[in-house]
Amino acid sequence: MRNYSLVILFLLVSLGLGAQELKCTVTLNADQVGTTNKQVFKTLERALNDFVNNTNWSNREYKEQERVNAQMFITITEHESNSFKGNIQLQSSRPVFNTSYQSPILNYKDNNFNFQYIEFQPLIYNENNLDSNLVAMISYYVYIILGLDADTFSLEGGSEYFRKAQQIVALSQSSGAPGWSTTSGDRGRFELVDNLMSNSYREFRVAMYNYHRKGLDILADNNSTGKQVIAGTLRLFENLASRHPNALLTQTFFDAKSQEIQDIFSDGPRVDMVQLKETLNKIAPLYSATWNQIK
C-alpha cells in the first residue's frame, strides 16, 4: 500500500511539473481566399494549436500558472494547391505582481508568412532538421515569445531562447523563403533576433527587465516609485536612438507598450511630465498622438 501511494504521489508531482511553456491560442482566418472548401484551414488551425501548446520547447519546468499567455492570428490571403501565403500577428503578455493585470509584451506582425502544407501533415519541431517553413516560422516565434517573457523576469533571462531562434534562422536561410534574409533593411526574422542578441542594442533588454520587474511589479505596492522607475527606464531608449534611429526593437517595444504607458502616467502620483513627454516624443514620435493624451 505504501509503495502504491508513492507511485500515485510521483505521478501527481510529475503532472504538475510537466506543463508546457505556452498557453497560446492560434486563430487562422481564410476569409480572403475564394475556395469553398475550408476544411484544410480548420485542420491546420487545430494542428497548429496542438503543435504550439503540446511541444516541450525547453528543459525548464513550467508550472501551470507560469505558462506564457500568447495569441497567434494567421491571415491567409492566397491559397493554391499546397501553397499558402499570408501574414501572422503575434501577441503575448505577462502578469503584473499583486494585480490581475496582464501587461502586453509583444505585438508584432510578419507579412511574409508563406509556406507549404498538406492536410494532416504532422508538425514536428526538430532543431537539427527544418524542412518545413511553417514549422520553422512558428518555432522561431515561439522562442521569441518565450525569450521576451523571460527577459521581463530576469536580466537577459531570454538568451537561451533567442539562441534557439538564431539556430532556426541559420537553418532556414538556405531555403530562400522570404523573411529569413540577412539583407539590410529587410526588418525580418534575422534582424529581429540578431538585434536581440547584439550588445549594440542591449538597452532594449535592460529596459525590458527594469520596466517590468523593477517598475510594473511594484506599482501596486508603491505607485510613485514604480512610475519613477518606468520613466527612468524609458530614457534608456535615448541612448539606443542616438546609435540606431528608428531601430526595430524600439518600434517593437512601443508597438506593445504605447497604450499602457499612456494609462500609467495619466493617473495617480505624477512624475516630471515635461521631461517624460519630451523623452517619449524623441524616441517614439510615431506615437505622439498617444503621448499628447497623457495629462
Q: What can you tell me about this protein's structure?
A:
It is built from eleven helices and five strands, in the order H-E-H-E-E-E-E-H-H-H-H-H-H-H-H-H. With 295 residues, the chain is an alpha+beta fold. The chain has two domains: 2-197, no CATH class; 202-291. Strands 1, 2, 3, 4 and 5 form a five-stranded mixed beta sheet that branches. The longest helix is centred in the middle third of the chain and has 19 residues, at 133-151. It is globular, with a radius of gyration of 21 Å. Mean pLDDT is 91; it is low at 1-18.
What is the gist of this entry?
With 295 residues, this protein is of the alpha+beta class. Helix content is 49%, strand content 15%. The protein folds into two domains: 2-197, no CATH class; 202-291.
Q: Would you list the SSEs in sequence order as H and E? A: HEHEEEEHHHHHHHHH
Radius of gyration from the CA trace?
Answer: 21 Å
Shape: globular
| Percentage of residues in helical conformation | 40-55%
Most strands sheet: 5 strands, mixed
Strand content: 15-25%
Could you list the spans in which at least 5 consecutive residues all have pLDDT below 50?
A: 1-18
Q: Could you say how many structural domains there are in total?
A: 2
Mean pLDDT: 91
Helix count, per DSSP?
Answer: 11
Structural class, by secondary structure, is: alpha+beta
Tell me the distance between the termini. Answer: 67 Å
Beta strand count:
5
